[in-house]
Amino acid sequence: MSEIVKEAWRKYLIQLQAHPLRTKAVTAGVLAGFSDAVAQKISGIQKIQLRRLLLIMLYGFAYGGPFGHFLHKLIDAIFGRRKDNKTVLKKVILEQLTSSPWNNFVFMMYYGLVVEGRPWSLVTSKVRRDYPSIQLTAWRFWPIVGWVNYQYMPLQFRVLFHSFVASCWGIYLNLRARSLVIKQA
């Protein structure tokens, strides 16, 4: 079994080197799909909703991976690849004040409008009501992830690490979004 894993990892690294954006997009899409499948099962859905799963994968593929790819390149362009505590803190603060609020907002809008197919007025009302608590929760969780990512991860692995942790965060957001819809019904 370990030989299979080693070979898969070797091939992944080759793809990451040859096609970094595409590889990060596919990775983010697969992990987002995994996250949604787990969230669906935890929420008690008996049969996986394939349309929902594919739309969540599309979000990871078309938005999550590419956004992370360019974000980390930009942050390293701004601050360099230094890993001293002061520089890492600046990177984390910048990420938490810019991309964290944006990403949570985009996910909530996408989930409501595209995944659930709800009307604009209902989605914006839900985002207005629930976004602050979701963002505050994010600020309790993501700075630690950001610190680990900037301190210990090489640039080429940051999106992979972030996407893996985001798959756990995605389970939380999915379950939170679903519970809010159920409360409104």
The helix/strand class is mainly alpha
Percent of residues in helical segments? Answer: over 70%
H/E series: HHHHHHH
Shape: globular
Helix and strand topology:
Layout lengths: L1 H17 L1 H23 L7 H30 L5 H13 L1 H17 L4 H33 L2 H30 L1
What does this structure look like?
The protein has 185 residues and is mainly α. The chain has one domain. The protein is built from 7 helices and no strands. The mean pLDDT is 91.
Give a quick set of tags describing it.
185 residues, mainly alpha, 7 helices, 88% helix
Short description:
The protein is mainly alpha-helical. The chain has helices at about 1-20, 20-40, 50-80, 85-95, 100-115, 120-150, 155-185.
